[in-house]
Amino acid sequence: MKASDLLYYCKIDRWDEKNPEGYQRALLDTRVNSAARYLLDEDGIFPTSILVNVRGKTEFIPSTSLDSYAELGVLRIPHSSLPFWIIDGQHRLIAIKLASKENPRLDNFAIPISIITFNSQYEEMRMFYIVNSRQKSVPTGLALEHLNRTVIEKGEEQVRKYEQKNKFFAALSIPILKILNTHPRSPWYNKIILPNEKRKPNHVISQVSFADSLGRILKELNEDELKEIKMGPLNFSLYLINYWLAISEIYPEAFKNPKEYIIQKTHGCYTFHLLYIDIYNLCKLNNNYSKEYVKEILLRALNRFSLDENNNATSSEFWNRTTGTSLGGMKAVNILVDKIRSHLQE
Q: Of 86, 114, 134, which closes a domain?
């Protein structure tokens, strides 16, 4: 159906104080704006159908049978049976209306429509509930894989226009993550749970958490460094492997029993990945990315931090999940990182 026709003949049975029997959620401007920009700046197509209901009488006149499982024909909807009640797709539809102000040709945008003919508003509401409460979105880890592929196909500049910064850099980190997860020298060898993979005893962290924390490093690199990584991520991945090997030598017990410590959990990854950009810059300044040099830098900073805070940050027990330091959220992680970072600069 032509978008302008559907917009003209449709209604949305939204719940509000004046319509307590309504069932539709309120429009989210952010979703509408995002979908409008998608139409105008990206792929420009909505391939899935908008689901509508006609509460009045309709007439279907079959013309062709398809092997007894379906029929082609003409659906007649008297004007008195309208409007089309939007069950699923209101954000897409309003996005077309918004985008057509910038590009009037979108008035003729062809929208696939699925029409059902429930007589009661209750049945309509029930279908809304089924569609919106039971469908599952794409797992985040798999979505990062998709986004990484999109960066390769469309280019970084195009993707940066419409994706959140942290999500973009998390997707950009996927090739590095895969090297860390498959390189036999890596302390992360076979420890990251990949999309659609069942958790195994060797797994300690999800791809989503690892990629997001890794993306925080990439976000701080300059354009030339990012370009070099995109051309070939191996060298940068090897630097990171040396970094994590140095950490594993400082905290051997934590890496032997990763489930008892938080270093290889989400908060540990964020802590050490947020620290890495400073260590990487020191390595670059001295043209030395070896495990031994990184370990020297880290130990010096951790010893100073321990003296300053009256703790033992060079012991695995500092990271013990039950008796060690408490990192209940990103605020605590950032405070810890800032304190250690201040000793890196001495």
A: 134
Query: For residue 17, what pLDDT band results from cuts at 50, 70 and 90?
Result: confident
Greater model confidence, 164 or 179:
179
Dihedral in degrees, nearest 10, Cα atoms 58, 60, 61, 65: 180
pLDDT tens digits, 129-157: 888 877 766 677 888 888 888 888 878 88
Concatenated DSSP letters of 225-255: HHHHHHH--HHHHHHHHHHHHHHHHHSHHHH
Give the SS3 label for residue 40. helix
Chain segment 286-311, per-residue pLDDT in tens: 999 999 999 999 999 999 999 999 99
Q: Establish how many alpha carbons lie within 13 A of residue 202's alpha carbon, considering only the half-sphere containing its beta carbon.
A: 9
Between the CA of residue 344 and those of 247, 264, 305, what are the distances in Å? 15, 22, 9
Task: Tell me which of 114, 134, 154 is where a domain ends.
Answer: 134
CB 302 within 8 A of CB 250: yes
**How far apart are the C-alpha atoms of 170 and 233, rounded to whole Å?**
14
Q: Which residue has the tokens 């659906």?
A: 75
